[in-house]
């Protein structure tokens, strides 16, 4: 009888231990994206299948750079995907990122990566001009390839530009011209461009829409998007800006408030892996080049040709962004 009691007590102890043990929690990643919905889902779904991790996606709302950074600070995300180098620079200045150097970051050229790992560069593009060929024909113009060609009298009230505060290609136009020509000549150009009365949109997608339907003739957009639109629509034509372009970097960063830092680091490692490099071209994104393949991408070099690209001073383009835009808009 005594043995039976001891056996029952031991069994009860084992059952109690089993009930009290913690069940393994499912792996999750809280992702905030500045990218488009389709591209974000391609990246998130691929990582989810590869790593067995549930990826919860939120999208960064529009607004000024500071409003977007405030939003990131107030919410608990593990990774911010799709930010620009200026945005990550300012986010780091405001201490909302935590450093991590992805495993294969050393394969990226030094000029395209953040050496301290505050953010990870992933993709690059350039500035393009997307033109409506029907409108150009009616005006007797060739597709513009330089900033000065946008000053043609026929293009007055025919330009669509995303708001400079959003960064990207439109702000890149300002900083590239300013750095390549110097402030005096840049302000002279700004005054002439302002006289063209361009329409400013809430995003480059809206600028493209205006060109697509023929209400405007030329939009300033990222090259990868311009080439996609050209491939889909015969009346649109993309050109690379030759005289003062910009290497536009898109990346990812781990947030200081990350609740799943291990998953965040694994996500960045995946994006820098060979599988991550091949992810975009495998899904039809052929003109958004991965920084890891930058030195070897002959197709990119053949496409952009001998464009003039300054080396951005992020301490200037990021910290003084509002002042740069104010002076540009006020040029007369």
TrEMBL record:
Quote the Gene3D superfamilies the UniProt record gives. Answer: Periplasmic binding protein-like II (3.40.190.10)
UniProt superkingdom: Bacteria
Signal peptide start-end: 1-22
Q: Could you identify this protein by its name?
A: ABC transporter substrate-binding protein
Quote any Pfam family the record assigns.
SBP_bac_11
Recite the UniProt keywords alphabetically. Signal
Give the PANTHER family listed for this entry.
ABC TRANSPORTER SUBSTRATE-BINDING PROTEIN, THIAMINE-BINDING PERIPLASMIC PROTEIN-RELATED
